[in-house]
Each structure stands twice: as C-alpha cells, then as structure tokens.
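Curious: explain these tokens?
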Amino acid sequence: MKTFKDYSKSNLWANTQIVNWLKTKPLELMGREMPSSFPTIRDTLLHIWGAEEIWLERLQLIPPTTFLFQRFDGTVEDIFEGILKKSEEFAAYVDALPDADFQEICTFKLLNGTEDSRPRSKMIHHCMNHSTYHRGQIVTMARNFGLTDPPSTDYMKYVRIK
C-alpha cells in the first residue's frame, strides 16, 4: 500500500509542477482553444480538479452532488489554487489510510446514477492515472501554442528527486 501513498504524493508534486509552470505563461493561453478532450487548458485543469474531487468523495463514501465543471465560475487563478488544494487533500487522505482499507470495496453512484463498486486501491490508481493522462494533454496543447519548456512530471523523476 506504500506504492499508492507514494503515487498520490507524486500526483500532488506533478500537479504542482504543471501549475507553477503555467503560472509563468500568458493568462490568455489558458483559455485559447485547441482540439483535445477539453477545448482549453483551463477546462482541462478544471476537469482534473473535478475528477479528483469526485473520486475523493467516493473514497470517503460521500455521495457527490454535481461535477465541479457544472458549478464553477471562478478564475484561472482559482483553478490553480483549487487543483493543488484538492491534490493535497487526496494525498493526505491516502497517506492516512490504514493498509487494510485499501482493499475495502466502496459502493458509489456514477454521475449518471448507475451504481458501481470497486476496491479503494483501484479507485486511487484510476484517479492518479486519469490526472496523468490529462496533464499530458495540457503539455501537448501548450506545445501547440508554442511553449517549449514544459516541466517533466514523470513518476520516475519524482522518485529520483524524492
């Protein structure tokens, strides 16, 4: 279970690297459209934050009400702050979990109302992998905007510097 704890800490580190990098770039790029899963870097960041929020609620057996995307009306700076805070909460939750709880089956509802159940370990793994996927999209979008200096957020880099 130590691996899951480390993986959630590396997710916080990687999100911090991306956010700190994006803070040095023109704010207008965050809202510029580029074909991807979400049309902008802003929306992709908001999706990462929202997914981490939903999965953390499910892990804690708290029924989510709505996806963050449906209720958020803040700024890009709010997103930068929110994603890091949520990733920190996620890492702290996972770090505090007793080993036995990782295999506990959590029953929850998907946003479409369908009931599902999974072991906590699988849910954590999915969420961290999901964030990794979308960080890659952010880098690709940014490169298409001419940004050539994205930070490396690979897990092995995290392991090396840790």
